[in-house]
Amino acid sequence: MIGSQDRSLIVRAARKASRLLSSLTPSAGSPRIALVGNCQAQALIPMLKAMVPSAHILGAVSVASFPRNTYANHARLIDTADIVLSLTIHDQYPVEWLRTTNLQTLCGDRLHLIPNMYFLGYTPDMVYLHAAGSRHVVQGPMTDYHLASVIHAYQQGWSPDRAVALFSDDTFFERNYAGAAEQSLAEMVRREAHLEVRMADYIAEHYKSRRLFHTLNHPTAHLLGVLAHRILSHLGIDHYDISQVTQEDYLSDIVKAPHPAVHRMLGLNFDNPSVDRAHVLKPDHTPDLYSLRYYTPQELVEAYYAVYDRHREFIMAYQTHISA
Questions:
Q1: Facing residues of 62 across strands?
Q2: How distant is the alpha carbon of residue 190 from its chain centre?
Q3: Contact 205/198 with Cβ under 8 angstroms?
Q4: pLDDT above 80 (res 250)
Q5: Would you list the domain boundaries of the chain?
Q6: In this structure, are strands 32-37 and 83-86 parallel, antiparallel, or unpaired?
Q7: 20 by DSSP, 3-state: which?
Q8: Half-sphere exposure (CA, 13 Å, Cβ side) for 157?
Q9: Cα–Cα distance, 131 to 146 (Å, whole number)
Q10: How far is residue 111 from each of residues 91, 194, 272, 311, measured CA to CA in Å?
């Protein structure tokens, strides 16, 4: 980790990278690209490779791999890249060299900031459960993702059947989540204001006509392809059109369909599947990260209830901010 008290170390690293790059002669049309970010950055790697086969995609530094994502472990990847694509990483992130302000010093004009796509419209009741700085305190079939509507029903002592009925309750979702899609888009516009590559406009225009997200922060292959196209166009790199490359859906392990009430509330024009995809629960009611299955709404609620029975005190204290 590069400490905030030692800015000179960042400067020395930047000079080292400059010297290293000057000694390398990439082939024309074969840029070396590194990424910094979350699962979206990881999923962009195969997309960029498919769209620019001649490019050298060096890999990604994951913000989720703290504390292993030190500069020492990733120096060559970052220092040899012609282009570094990074999400905006705030100044409170614990690995200091990855903070955007420090990456700008380290990478100079090789750094290009890209958007982090996040949309609550399809799943306005999807939440993380945080405790003591961690969101992994309770994991269910959708790992860290939970549904506030289900938590609310559990807290009220309602049966799984009654919890499932909420998914089709237009009044419940209108009362609690009517403005979620618009608010989410407005927040993305705000976060993208300083970026040269933006995606909020595309999401706003197309989210009703085709599915763009599997969960609140897992975009579909199509949307990742649009982002890759915009990044490459901004960089002036010739590339295949996304319609010409295979689009494997890299972030589709967990798929939560919009609830029927949300589908109607938003006026969505694509088919709404009747099942969701999530992890199998092991006998101890923790998710098996290597095994997936499909859940009906009834099965999904029953799985969450079984998990919540093991964490009852924490779940009963959780604030859903739901108006019954």
A1: 37
A2: 17
A3: no
A4: yes
A5: 7-114, 115-219+248-324
A6: parallel
A7: helix
A8: 0
A9: 14
A10: 17, 14, 39, 44
Q: What residues form DSSP beta bridges with 32? A: 56
Give the tokens for residue 190.
């705000």
Query: What DSSP element (H or E) covers 177?
Result: helix 170-177
**What is the tens place of the pLDDT at every residue in 109-159?**
999 999 999 999 999 999 999 766 566 689 999 999 999 999 999 999 999
- 314 Cβ contact list (under 8 Å, min separation 6): 129, 131, 137, 138
Q: Which fold has domain 7-114?
A: Rossmann fold (3.40.50)
DSSP letters of 36-81?
Answer: EESHHHHHHHHHHHHH-TTSEEEEEEEGGGTTS--HHHHHHHHHH-
Do 144 and 136 contact (CB within 8 A), yes or no?
A: yes
Predicted TM-score (pTM) above 0.85:
yes
Alpha-carbon span 115 to 185, nearest angstrom:
13
Contacts for 313-319 with beta carbons within 8 Å, 24 or more apart? 314/129, 314/131, 314/137, 314/138, 315/138, 315/151, 315/154, 315/155, 316/155, 318/129, 318/151, 318/155
